[in-house]
Amino acid sequence: MNCERIDSANREVINTFIRERWYTTVMVIRGRQIDMTATEGFFLREQEKVMGLITYIVYDGILEITSLDSLRENQGIGSMLVDRVVREAKERGLQKIVLVTTNDNINAIRFYQKRGFDMAHLFRNAVDVARKVKPEIPLVGEYAIPLHHEIEFERVI
Predict the structure, then answer these.
(1) I want to staple 81 with a disulfide (CB 3.0 to 4.6 A). Which of 26, 54, 102, 127 is the partner?
(2) CB burial of residue 12 (10 Å; 0-12, 13-18, 19+)
(3) What pTM did the predictor assign?
(4) With the C-alpha atoms ordered 53, 153, 110, 140, is the resulting torsion angle positive or negative?
(5) What is the pLDDT of residues 2-32, one digit of tens each?
(6) 24 to 19, 37, 48, 55, 127: CA distances (angstroms)
(7) Could you give the CA distance from residue 17 to residue 45 in angstroms, rounded to a whole number?
């Protein structure tokens, strides 16, 4: 699989992948709307099919991961993409990487902790607030866990 940077030549393919995975190109994180069609990122392609994608925004010396998707779990796709973003943050001289996941996303909570990220903040009822902007967010998430909170992880570079 080839790891490629998102650019103008592949942007529409990436936007289509985002819509297929997230049903929209708007992400709500900590109450703010992120236009996913404008994020930076990397993706892994096998032949012409996108197999994994990581997107991020950069601000105030921080790289914030806005999404991570892998079409094949437990095969190293997510790890390769996170490693590439860590390298990107180091190359840019950034201070830390942050990301937010929801309280039901047990797999992500485990995944990020195993890769050196620590829980930094709990945003109680943030998903309930986000649901007012993005009503398609379900009430119940993975493992039948009620979906209410956001958890911020960080990794200092």
Answers:
(1) 54
(2) exposed
(3) 0.93
(4) negative
(5) 899 999 999 999 999 999 998 889 999 998 8
(6) 5, 10, 22, 14, 16
(7) 12
